[in-house]
Amino acid sequence: MIKLLYLILTLLYPHVNSSVTRVIDGDTLDADFGRVRLLSINAPEKGQRCSDNATKFLERLKGSKLTFFRDIENKDKYKRFLRYVYYQDELVSLEMVKEGLAKSYCFFPNLNHCSEIKKAQLNAMKNKKGCLWSESNKTCLIISEADKRSDLAQITNICAENVGLDGVYVESDGRQRVKFFGILCPGCIKDFSINIGDFLMVFDKQGLIDYRAF
Do both 113 and 209 map to the same domain? Predict the structure, then answer.
């Protein structure tokens, strides 16, 4: 009955108020009307670095009255409601990105807050905010080339010794990931293809080692 009433309200009003009954992970929660996936962000999966931090950030909202706004799409393929969540006057997704607890994840056609969230991520990366970016550690590997039009890029070993690539991967803000293995010799280049999006990030086992914003 509650879910049916909510569906009617979403057709009549741009937002609805509801309480958080359960937090699933850093970007998914249960409200009175059903399961909600926060729009425009992607938090680390369970077991990944920063997953617990992101989940705890949302858990402080349990029992609170929040405001849920929809964008263009109502649900995702998993039947979760897609919503912007506000606590008082704060957009929760934006605050999580500002604090370095989640990455931007904008997908068409739900782009209402995309620009400000991407800007917040760039600032968080530059200022090494939160557990996602504060453990960043510059190493021998850099993004030496990236062409957004062709979605082709490369990493280069700028050091004078071999660099092991096991555990190194490149990730885009479109949630695509390319993993590397083996050894990269001094001055050598590794080409790869990926849907670049607006961010391209290189991680090793310790965290972020290089990034490029477009």
Answer: no
